[in-house]
Design a protein that fits this description.
The structure is a single chain. The chain is mainly alpha-helical. It has 1 helix and no strands.
């Protein structure tokens, strides 16, 4: 069984409630967390 992860990108309204200036840092932090967890 394989699992995947999705980095929020905003177009699915998954960054609602986060200041616009924080969108990129938030996406970057999530991507790094996913990568360090072993996802590719």
């Amino acid at each position: 069984m394989k699992f995947g992860a999705f980095v929020p990108q905003g177009w699915r309204l998954d960054l609602v409630g986060i200041e616009q200036a924080e969108h990129w840092p938030t996406m970057l932090e999530i991507a790094r967390t996913i990568e360090s967890s072993g996802f590719e």
